[in-house]
Design a protein that fits this description.
- The complex is a heterodimer of chains A (113) and B (117).
- In chain A, strands 2, 4, 5, 9, 10 and 11 form a six-stranded mixed β-sheet that branches.
- The radius of gyration of chain A is 14 Å and the shape is globular.
- In chain A, a hairpin with a 6-residue loop joins strand 9 and strand 10.
- Helices cover 0% and strands 53% of the residues of chain A.
- Chain A is mainly β and 113 residues long.
- Chain A is built from no helices and eleven strands.
- Chain B has no helices and eleven strands.
- In chain B, strands 2, 4, 5, 6, 9, 10 and 11 form a seven-stranded mixed β-sheet that branches.
- The chains are: A mainly beta (113), B mainly beta (117).
Chain lengths: 113, 117
């Protein structure tokens, strides 16, 4: 059972289009992170959202954390070829002194010029 | 410097070989991780080291043996691997391991692409 489900799984769009990626769970998370992984590289953190209902913007990227802290979305405005990559949401799991990050199922985005 | 380095970049090995993957960070981070990633899939956690001690082993087969010689270095020793172990192996580090605070960031290396023949 995958705790963090992302949709869509794959997305191929033209440069200039807008898109939204969703990250959903039946569990409540204290925070969620979004990473982007480009081909041949490791994932890079884009943002962390910690408060229910929080909205954060990073240039053309807008991240939202659901009010109930069970879901998050990533909206990209006017996508560019440089946005191509694997987008991953991730959330902490486990109590105590050591938590671990679990990753969502991933959304592979291809932006065609 | 927010760099995590991994060597080698690519590795091809037979099922009877013994090889090691190396990871290094100089950010003063006290937690280091090994992940396995199949193509177009999310990373799967294998091991977590916190203050040079193994704190999480995600039921990884014993043919994978991690080692943390010091706080900057992390190795993954490989022996008698199977073809299904072919994947991208990612190393990561973070200041601490309390991700529930929302204040931790994992920094990933570029990975070692492993092919087992």
């Amino acid at each position: 059972t995958q705790l963090l489900e992302q949709s869509p799984q794959f997305l191929s769009i033209q440069e200039g289009e807008n898109l939204t990626v969703y990250c959903n769970s039946s569990s409540v998370f204290s925070s969620l992170q979004w990473y982007r992984q480009e081909p041949g590289e490791g994932p890079v953190l884009l943002v962390t959202v910690v408060t229910g209902g929080e909205v954060k913007k990073l240039k053309r990227l807008t991240f939202q954390f659901g009010d109930a802290r069970k879901d998050s979305s990533l909206h990209i405005t006017a996508a560019q070829p440089g946005d191509t990559g694997l987008y991953l949401c991730a959330g902490p799991l486990g109590g105590g002194a050591t938590n671990k990050l679990i990753f969502g199922t991933g959304t592979l985005l291809a932006v065609q010029p | 410097d927010t760099e995590v380095t991994q060597t080698p970049k690519h590795l091809v090995m037979g099922m009877t070989n013994k090889k090691s993957l190396k990871c290094e960070q100089h950010m003063g981070h006290r937690a280091m991780y090994w992940y396995k990633q199949k193509a177009k899939k999310p990373p799967e956690l294998m091991f977590v080291y916190s203050y040079e001690k193994l704190s999480i082993n995600e039921s990884v087969p014993s043919r994978f043996s991690p080692e943390c010689p010091n706080s900057s270095l992390l190795n993954l020793h490989l022996h008698a691997l199977q073809p299904e172990d072919s994947a991208l192996y990612l190393c990561a580090s973070s200041q601490g391991v309390r991700f529930v605070t929302g204040r931790e960031t994992q920094y990933f290396g570029p990975g070692t692409r492993l092919l087992v023949l």
